[in-house]
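Translate sequence into structure tokens.
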Amino acid sequence: MTSKDLDQLTAADIMQRDVVAIGPHDTLQDAMALMTENHVTGLPVMDSHSRCVGLISATDILNYEQEHAEYNSEVNSEMARHFDPDTQRWESVRVSSYALEEFGNVPVEDVMARELIHVERGTPLREVAEAMVKHGVHRVLVLNDERALFGIVSAMDFVKLFARP
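Result follows.
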């Protein structure tokens, strides 16, 4: 693939169209189950009018659990490690059996990111990559002005693009 070919590609050319999403009133436990089942680390949050209103990531859930865990007095607390794709670092969080049970019923809307990093379908790939770097994220949503979700472009989509024969 030549640089001229790359200059003509847009978000629509490499975005993932088959996107797993969750509702704002679903629970964090539901979100974790969907992420695990579909091998993803983030889910768009869609309202009843099919508009994207947020994004929930595994990092958001772990950070929420860590902030709300009563681990100082918790005998069963353990350290868990997870890779944060946004910071590209391994992080340790304290996880307690009590908190894991308790925070599962929290609605996604209480934890989700509401500021959406997004592009339109016709956005050139260079601008998509620049948005990802500027905001320090590894995925951007592909939305229109009405917040209808068309897909997601992840860092892995760029890797796949360059790995093609």
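Note: DSSP finds seven helices and seven strands in the chain.
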